[in-house]
Amino acid sequence: MSTDIANVATATRSIRNPVLAGFHPDPSILRVDDDYYLATSTFEWYPGVRVHHSRDLVNWRTLSGVITDRRLLDLRGCGDSNGVWAPDLTYHDGLFYLVYSDVASFASGYWDPQNFLVTAEDIAGPWSDPVKLHGRGFDAALFHDEDGTTWLLSMSADWRPGRDRFGGIEIQQYDRAERRLVGSPRMLFTGTSVGVTEGPHIYRHDGWYWLITAEGGTSWEHQVTMARSRDLFGPYEVDPDGPLLTSVGRPDLRLQKAGHGSLVRTQTDEWYLAHLVGRPYSPLGSCVLGRETAIQRVEWPSGEWPKIAGGVPADEVVAPDLPAHPWPAEPETDHFDAPELGLCWSTLRRPATTDWVDLHARPSYVRIHGGQSPVGRQAPSLVARRVGAMHCSLETVVEFDPADHRQLAGVTAYYNTLNWHHLYLTRDDDGRTVLELLSSDNGRRTPYPDLTVDVSGVTRVGLRAVFDGPVVRFDYDLGAGWQPAGVDLDATILSDEHAALIIDGEPAAWGFTGAFLGLWVQDLGGDGAYADFDLATYREQ
């Protein structure tokens, strides 16, 4: 099954969660006529803001990303888990509106967020030049009111020591004609005692303004909070029955971290909530797959508060009364025959431009020109795809002629600059071309010199990376069949939980993404090294 296309059996007409497996957090769901769209966060990866499409809420396909070039956002130098946070997708008067936050830091109580807005007549673009909005907080979202006005919501950050850095939800009018914010911001909602109030969206329904927020932080204490008011500016009363959705106190649930939701109403007046979840490998353990997207059915009788059965995330829910609309399955193997990278691929901190990702120099190959080291944040050369299942693999065939030890090319199981496993070809000091294995655990590198393999004279080398639950394994093929690299590696270091680091109560590092499998080429001397990859096959078990 594809990571990016959830083809679910439609005979039972059920939604099976997660609908977007692997790193797809912070979903913003939107319906335009008969089409449903989900926009999700991408952080330091291009293309930014992945958009997914459905006609029945059951079957989803990836359309692409919105931020495909530096005109829309430059991620050079972006820190791990910085960059694009919590996009918001809306539609009004024939235009798609996308708001996204570029968060530059989260240390010492500072965030340095900057919010942007782009528009397009078609979901596929082209998208306008970005409008620079405020930088007072992140998780910005638009609300288009029935009177024709448009409003920008966001969490309100407070940097001052001793204050709650999640100061509440603020609102300010956005002038669509002038393409700018007008008037003064107003505090709308300060949240509940749960705290960490963020992720706001407003909906107009049944004579009320309904404010939905995420609270509790994006891990085990996460929840979806509902509040309502007769007036846009409040005051907002909170649902007396508690959160609309949460996994708190239920470690037995398969879907954890339930929160950060957005609502959608179907053509048949049914309501659903898209939200993020995590699937730990053990109770409240590591979520190697990252934060994923799930959908829950919402019951919303007139005059009452919306409810989700049990208030907890279900693995399977009743689908809406819509015609089934499955999509073609994604092929297991990418032969690199297309003029551009396939939709399954992402690139780290720089878009896949032809100066380093070349699909034309050699037909049916992708030529990746080497980039910076694993800690380089300006020009790394990593082409990767999301890990979508506990048991999966990526295999490829590489042709590479390294000149020295500064040139490396191979496959990686990757989380961020500090946490990864890498099987690669390089040149030893004695002139041999060798296959080596290196791991990094929070920046502590572990080589495996006893596992070095001489591949001198072998033109084409098969490489494979395998996720087998909590274990990562590598294999190689020199022409006589697959051979194990010889060591079991820890897959759980490629998780949000492992990446997070708190020092004296402040985040020194955070983890908001998920594990990737990828093709990685390094040219540490800047001497023009490149590697040719002939096909890449991704399989899930």
TrEMBL record:
One of its GO terms (biological process) is carbohydrate metabolic process. Residues 333-539 form the Beta-xylosidase C-terminal Concanavalin A-like domain. InterPro entries: ConA-like_dom_sf (IPR013320), GH43_C2 (IPR041542), Glyco_hydro_43 (IPR006710), Glyco_hydro_beta-prop_sf (IPR023296), Glycosyl_Hydrlase_43 (IPR051795). The record marks D139 as: Important for catalytic activity, responsible for pKa modulation of the active site Glu and correct orientation of both the proton donor and substrate. Signal peptide: none annotated. One of its GO terms (molecular function) is hydrolase activity, hydrolyzing O-glycosyl compounds. This is Xylan 1,4-beta-xylosidase. It comes from Micromonospora taraxaci. The lineage of its organism: Bacteria, Bacillati, Actinomycetota, Actinomycetes, Micromonosporales.
